[in-house]
């Protein structure tokens, strides 16, 4: 089994060239257009809405009627129409809704509308 070094076969592994990352990562589209504070505030409002709907309907998430409260849609409406829109959305709820509506309208003050291309 003695063979000359020049005739032996060799296996060579090549490593792919590493792609160099840019020196600093680009921020996501949302964090560029809206600061994190605005995004966190919106998330907090959405979580508050979810919790309040559980209390209003006194049931688990799966049992809540199909109900979508679109914050951006409400922000497009004049102040006077927001309350009536919320009352219309919650008409099937048997419990008093005024505290929820007042709380939501208060939390929405100063909130900015997100552009349509960034919404889900």
Describe the structure in your own words.
The chain is an all-alpha fold. The chain is built from five helices and no strands. The protein has helices at residues 29-33, 36-57, 71-76, 79-89, 98-108. α2 (36-57) packs antiparallel against α5.
Helix content: 40-55%
Give, in order, the helices and strands: HHHHH
Main beta sheet, described?
none
Q: Give a count of the beta strands, DSSP E runs of length 2 or more.
A: 0
**How many distinct helices?**
5
Q: Low-confidence parts, pLDDT < 50 over ≥5 residues?
A: none
Gross morphology is elongated
- Helix-strand makeup class: mainly alpha
Strand content: under 5%
Rg estimate, integer Å: 28 Å
Q: What gap, in angstroms, lies between the N and C termini?
A: 68 Å
Mean pLDDT: 76
Biased composition (Polar residues): 1-12
Keywords: Acetylation, Phosphoprotein, Protein phosphatase inhibitor
GO molecular function: protein serine/threonine phosphatase inhibitor activity
Region (Disordered): 1-28
Compact description:
The protein is an all-alpha fold and 120 residues long.
Identify the notable features of this structure and list them briefly.
protein phosphatase inhibitor; mainly alpha; CPI-17; phosphoprotein; acetylation; 120 residues
């Amino acid at each position: 089994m003695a063979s000359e070094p020049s005739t032996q076969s060799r296996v060579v592994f090549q490593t792919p060239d590493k792609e160099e990352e840019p020196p600093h990562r680009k921020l996501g589209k949302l964090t560029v257009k809206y600061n994190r504070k605005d995004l966190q505030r919106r998330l907090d409002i959405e979580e508050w809405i979810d919790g309040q709907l559980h209390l209003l309907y006194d049931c688990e998430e799966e049992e809540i009627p199909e109900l979508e409260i679109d914050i951006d849609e409400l922000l497009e409406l004049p102040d006077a129409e927001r309350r009536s829109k919320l009352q219309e959305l919650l008409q099937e709820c048997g419990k008093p809704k005024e505290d929820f509506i007042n709380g939501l309208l208060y939390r929405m003050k100063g909130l900015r509308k997100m552009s349509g291309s960034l919404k889900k």
